[in-house]
Amino acid sequence: MICFDCQELDVTTAAVAVCRTCGAGICRGHGRPTPQTLHDLTGAGLATKPRAARRMVCRTCLAAERSG
Asked: What pTM value is reported for the model?
């Protein structure tokens, strides 16, 4: 798979991850690891896990998430 953002610039770079939000292939330069809080359904509500998981997003989706 080729990085979607690099391909738009006519560069062929191998994708090393997939954006968790839009599903585009992303290379090391265009991917951003972000924390994701995990929850469990317990009893009558949610319990938050003590450690965050890692998720990869592209720069476009990260900017969209932080825009509002």
From this structure: 0.77
Contact 31, 60 (CB under 8 A): no
Tokens for 25, please give them. Answer: 């292939």
Phi, psi of 62 (to 5 degrees): -65, -45
Distance CA 50, CA 56 (A): 20
Give the residue ranges of the chain where pLDDT is below 70: none
Region of residue 62 (left: phi > 0; alpha: psi -120 to 50; beta: else): alpha
Which residues face 17 on adjacent strands? 26
Give me the pLDDT at residue 48, please.
86
- Residue 14 DSSP class: B
